[in-house]
């Protein structure tokens, strides 16, 4: 084996040396070629290029005749910048390069579809696709979620064999009786033939049923089988490709720009790739996509697999091995190649697209018009933006029985920002069962409400958040004849209460469930174990037979016993032979005690126990009645909540929060009034009167007194006019209110409830306006003399009226 290995290595070494010599000979032959031969080759190449250019000029590129997706009706192009409407010289040059590139591609690949190079924008101006991209500085890890790349590790559990509980131990085997002393079972007198026939018949029935189900399933599968797609492989869609290698990207993957979901490049839904582009270059896929995208190599530096359009310094480099890298030793060829690249390089123009700005309102809509509908097989999903629907509906899932989606099976609706804390509503159209789910915070601590009708005394199940209730109620089940309640964490250890109702007594007058409750026939209560009491005194179940006037008790069973004590009380209202009412007799208490005790047999103990049970029965009946009233209150509250469906708004949402908006407007109004007050204090109250005198002239004593009197007289008249204006508005509002009251007295009999509501609303608003005017008038009367005196004092202290100070000095 060692000799064979050495021989193979020698042959490989000889082949490598021969290949190296051949390559060196070819290079030397090129260097030794005469200049004339090189000139002939250059001339031949030029002629070939001219012929190719002539052929390319004759090629007509087919452009799609479809209209642009954006029209002037949908977008106001007058507000767009100049870069949207025109092309720079560099962009025009790029379009010419792209057109030449497209002609060459159509000449070399006539069977492939035309390239998507320069579509029309919203202003119907051709733009190269790479210039529509605006690069961002945000790193990829902040843009995408890498949870899909996590690896999951399986846990291996060691299964320990457990002993067989059916196999007796050694001691148990010793206790097993000998076989000759065992009791023989009775003979089986049934006919085995009849049993076999019955089994055979049942097997035939099951086989027929399985066959029918199999045929039904095959029929459904045939109906659900997708029809042949006539456009399979002809649809073109733009996706985002993220290449691995940089920014800790482990592998290549696609991103759907409409949903943001990521997909592997091995996904079978991707049939092929026509071209790739970014903000720097444009590449054409030259690989065969017979196996979809599974075998594609995304090495953009390989011109054999990816034909690039622009040759520049930013072009992706080919991934070379060490052998390929060591083969590039000719410095002259490298320098010549660099010169050619420099001559043919072309820098991509900057993007003509403005930076995308999304307002908070547009971002909150999440989709056009805030609504999105997704159709599935036998299901339809509808989504809405928050606050778009007045009832807070954000999502609805409708499932159907048939493929045509005509027969509804069930509906699920999700809500947000509901004041009643409603989160989910589930409606089963088959059973007409509706189930409402609530978040914590409902006034009645509701958690789940299942019902078929909102009418009282119907089938319903209500679950509560027990931590939000003081009575520890968890669930309440109601039917037309029963009511069952489940408790937890109560100090009296009550866990269960079941009430049976009888038919309601009919009354001639109209009565409701509150005024005419259902008669209680039986109440059953169960209790958890109270460790503070002995088991024979701790009641486990208590039954009040109201109609039969009996009370049954069952106590908890001790751990070392197999049965529990029981006691029954009879509430008789009989009288003795003297006419006296019988209070307690030995036959009114029937008991079974596991361990009899003397004090429980005394009539006094039994009498006190029965009196205590009577009080408990009265309390239990009252609690059942309160439970009925609570159900009525819950139903009434739910009807009001469904009618109002008020939504909660955050205090930070100033656009929707009316209270916050009113508070902000009030603060702005106060600040504006303060600003006006400051401006008023800065006004020159003597300016209108000083304008009547020649400028720069010194005031005489007589002129100063006249200016002071005119200023005070004008201010007094303005105060009087303001008081008269407030008084006139006050009298006008009062007269209109009196007329409205007189009209109401004349037409009170014929008014509708809506008219009465409008009248009461008008009276309330009119009284509010009258009260405000009255307050303003009183305040003006109080402040007018003070303002007059303040102005008079300012006039005396004004340095421009210095003669006044001499008079009163």
Describe the protein.
With 809 residues, the chain is an alpha+beta fold. Among the domains are: 81-160 and 238-308, no CATH class; 418-505 and 513-643, no CATH class; 685-804, no CATH class. 39% of the residues lie in helices and 15% in strands. The strands form 3 sheets. The protein has a 16-stranded antiparallel β-sheet with strand order 7-8-9-10-11-12-13-14-15-16-17-18-19-20-21-22, with helices on one face. The protein has a 3-stranded antiparallel β-sheet with strand order 1-2-3, with no helix packed on it. Strands 4-5-6 form a 3-stranded antiparallel β-sheet, with no helix packed on it. The termini are far apart. Residues 1-5, 28-40, 62-72, 137-179 and 320-341 have low confidence and may be disordered.
Short summary:
With 809 residues, the protein is an alpha+beta fold. It has helices at residues 2-31, 35-58, 82-85, 89-108, 140-143, 170-175, 192-224, 322-326, 331-344, 360-365, 603-644, 658-682, 687-690, 701-746, 753-797, 802-807; strands spanning 240-242, 253-255, 262-264, 275-277, 282-285, 306-308, 371-376, 379-384, 393-400, 408-415, 422-428, 433-438, 446-451, 460-464, 473-478, 482-487, 494-501, 520-527, 539-545, 550-555, 566-570, 589-592.
């Amino acid at each position: 084996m060692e000799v064979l290995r050495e021989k193979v290595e020698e042959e490989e070494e000889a082949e490598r040396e021969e290949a190296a010599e051949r390559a060196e000979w070819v290079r030397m032959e090129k260097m030794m070629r005469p200049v004339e031969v090189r000139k002939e080759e250059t001339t031949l190449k030029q002629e070939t290029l001219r012929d190719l250019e002539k052929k390319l000029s004759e090629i007509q590129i087919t452009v799609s005749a479809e209209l642009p997706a954006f029209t002037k009706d949908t977008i106001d192009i007058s507000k767009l910048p100049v870069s949207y409407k025109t092309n720079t010289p560099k962009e025009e040059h790029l379009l010419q390069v792209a057109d030449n590139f497209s002609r060459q591609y159509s000449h070399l690949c006539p069977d492939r579809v035309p390239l998507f190079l320069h579509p029309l924008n919203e202003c119907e101006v051709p733009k190269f696709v790479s210039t529509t991209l605006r690069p961002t500085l945000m790193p990829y890890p902040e843009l995408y979620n890498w949870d899909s790349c996590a690896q999951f590790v399986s846990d291996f559990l060691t299964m320990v064999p457990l002993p067989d509980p059916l196999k007796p131990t050694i001691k148990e085997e010793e206790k097993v009786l000998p076989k000759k002393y065992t009791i023989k079972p009775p003979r089986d007198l049934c006919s085995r033939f009849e049993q076999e026939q019955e089994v055979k018949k049942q097997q035939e029935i099951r086989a027929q049923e399985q066959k029918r189900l199999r045929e039904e399933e095959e029929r459904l599968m045939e109906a659900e089988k997708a029809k042949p797609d006539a456009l399979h492989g002809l649809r073109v869609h733009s996706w985002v490709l993220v290449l691995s290698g940089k920014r800790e990207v482990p592998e290549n993957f696609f991103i759907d720009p409409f949903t943001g979901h990521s997909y592997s490049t091995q996904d079978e839904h991707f049939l092929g790739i026509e071209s790739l582009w970014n903000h720097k270059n444009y590449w054409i896929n030259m690989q065969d996509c017979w196996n979809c995208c599974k075998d594609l190599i995304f090495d953009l530096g390989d011109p054999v697999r990816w034909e690039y359009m622009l040759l520049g310094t930013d072009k992706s480099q080919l991934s070379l091995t060490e052998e390929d890298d060591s083969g590039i030793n000719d410095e002259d060829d490298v320098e010549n190649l660099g010169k050619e690249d420099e001559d043919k390089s072309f820098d991509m123009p900057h993007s003509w697209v403005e930076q995308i700005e999304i307002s908070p309102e547009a971002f909150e809509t999440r989709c056009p018009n805030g609504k999105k509908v997704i159709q599935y097989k036998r299901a339809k999903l509808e989504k809405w933006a928050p606050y778009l629907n007045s009832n807070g509906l954000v999502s609805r899932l409708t499932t159907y029985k048939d493929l045509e989606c005509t027969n509804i099976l069930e509906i699920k609706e999700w809500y947000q920002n509901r004041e009643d804390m409603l989160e989910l509503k589930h409606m089963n159209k088959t059973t007409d069962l509706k189930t409402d789910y609530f978040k914590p915070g409902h006034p009645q601590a509701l958690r789940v409400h299942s019902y078929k009708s909102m009418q009282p005394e119907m089938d319903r199940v209500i679950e509560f958040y027990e931590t939000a209730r003081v009575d520890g109620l968890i669930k309440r089940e109601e039917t037309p004849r029963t009511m069952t309640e489940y408790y937890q964490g109560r100090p009296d250890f009550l866990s269960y209460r079941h009430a049976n109702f009888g038919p309601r007594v009919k009354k001639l007058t109209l009565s409701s469930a509150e005024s005419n409750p259902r008669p209680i026939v039986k109440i059953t209560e169960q209790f958890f174990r109270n460790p503070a009491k002995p088991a024979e005194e701790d009641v486990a179940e208590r039954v009040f037979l109201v109609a039969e006037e009996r009370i049954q008790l069952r106590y908890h069973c001790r751990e070392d016993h197999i049965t529990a004590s029981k006691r029954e009380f009879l509430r008789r209202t009989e009288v003795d032979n003297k006419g006296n009412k019988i209070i307690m007799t030995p036959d009114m208490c029937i008991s079974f005690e596991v361990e009899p005790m003397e004090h429980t047999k005394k009539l006094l103990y039994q009498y006190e126990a029965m009196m205590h049970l009577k009080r408990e029965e009265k309390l239990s009946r009252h609690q059942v009645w309160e439970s009925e009233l609570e159900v009525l209150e819950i139903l009434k509250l739910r009807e009001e909540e469904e009618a109002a469906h008020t939504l909660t708004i955050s205090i930070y949402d100033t656009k929707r929060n009316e209270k916050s908006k009113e508070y902000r407007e009030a603060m702005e109004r106060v600040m504006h009034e303060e600003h006006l007050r400051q401006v008023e204090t800065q006004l020159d109250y003597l300016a209108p009167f000083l304008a009547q005198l020649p400028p720069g002239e010194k005031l005489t004593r007589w002129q100063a007194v006249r200016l002071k009197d005119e200023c005070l007289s004008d201010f007094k008249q303005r105060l009087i006019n303001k008081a008269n204006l407030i008084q006139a508005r006050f009298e006008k509002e009062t007269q209109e209110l009196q007329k409205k009251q007189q009209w109401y007295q004349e037409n009170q009999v014929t008014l509708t409830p809506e008219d009465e509501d409008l009248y009461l609303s008008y009276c309330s608003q009119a009284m509010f306006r009258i009260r405000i005017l009255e307050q303003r008038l009183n305040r003006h009367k109080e402040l007018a003399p003070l303002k007059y005196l303040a102005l008079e004092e300012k006039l005396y202290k004004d340095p421009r009226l210095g003669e006044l100070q001499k008079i009163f000095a």
